Amino acid sequence: MAERGTDPVEYRRYGPPAGDRPPEWQSAAPACSTRPPVARPQPQGRAPGLVLVVAVALVVGIVSGGLSSVAVSNMLHSDATPSASLTNVTGQSVRIEESSAVTESVKKVLPAVVTISSTSGSPLGGGGGIGSGFVFDARGWILTNRHVVSGADTLSVRLNDTRVFPGKVYGIDTLTDLAIVKIEATRLPVAHLGVSAGLEQGQLAIAIGNPLGTFENSVTTGVVSGLGRQITAGDAGNQSAEQLNNLIQTDAAINPGNSGGPLVDSDGHVIGINTAVSQNAQGIGFAIPIDVAKPILAQALAGKPLARPWIGVFYQPVTKQLAESDHLSVDYGALISSSDATSPAVFPGSPAADAGLRSGDVIVSVDGQRIDGDHDLSTQILPHLPGDTIALKVQRGATAINVKVKLGMLPAQAG
After folding, report:
1. Is 329 a residue of the active site?
2. List 117, 259, 350, 365, catalytic entry
3. 160-190 pLDDT, tens per residue?
4. Tens of pLDDT along 399-409?
5. Does residue 384 carry a catalytic annotation?
6. Is 388 a catalytic residue?
7. What pTM did the predictor assign?
8. Catalytic residue among 177, 251, 265, 291, which?
């Protein structure tokens, strides 16, 4: 739940990374004629007047020329000065607009952010901890991290308006580090959910929460640094660990106590749930995409137990390199295989086993949607409910086959 000590803080999300990553993870000229004057004969007897006229004309011409030069010079200076000024104003406007976007987004979400305190009398619980969460339904429904509430005997939820309610864990997600907490309250401010499927690297990301369990309603900003990340997160003592997939990476500061709080976009919509940080690096944090959470939120509001669909296979994404090294007939899809010789690629008695799937098969599409780098197998299965039937296209050697699988319920994760 938390680092245990005199001051309770949230259970830290640290642990080694998945694969071969370094082991530092713990959870914008005036025109003038050149033609000479034409000499014209002048009438006799009018020379003095003519001379006078010519003299006056010359004076007027000189004065006019001088005034024109001044006017042109002023015009040039006038044109140049606003350009430089415009450049500065434009740069300042960008900064002001971004700052304004952050301010407005925070105003929309902050009232729905809560602080969750837990106590535990068990030896493993260690006393208590503090984390974050946010209200997703005005009738007292709160989304947070599983590790914030796991093992707790009692929960206390402090709202942004300082009211405190006892909380009850409605359900734990068997797929991710998520949990749903219920309090007996109504007409609460709600954080509006966004869409994480269309996120792009570099877009604004705002993290809101209670770092270290002390600095309530803290706001940090950054960008979406990466998508589809995979890490292994565990507690501070490395007593337990779990693999988290398809995460959003952000450089918005996330600290112990922020877990369970919202990651927000520039429109004030929740795009993720903060869940893990790197112990040995700065500017690297992770959040669970909000699209991953939406199915269990709908189940809770419908009064159903939280359940995730399950196919029952180990797999690895197929790349061109993998296709060449394993002599596969396709260079995309999900290869059913296990990296652990003691674990079968297809779970005995699983929906995949019942459908006749085998180790070495490559699932190339789900319900017609191609499985590739942008469409992971688990992501395509996620929107379904246990009991739904999905249509798979499978490449078995050089043969393409169609298989229907009735999804089961994902077993509860250990720990």
Report:
1. no
2. 259
3. 999 999 999 999 998 899 999 999 999 999 9
4. 999 999 999 99
5. no
6. no
7. 0.72
8. 177
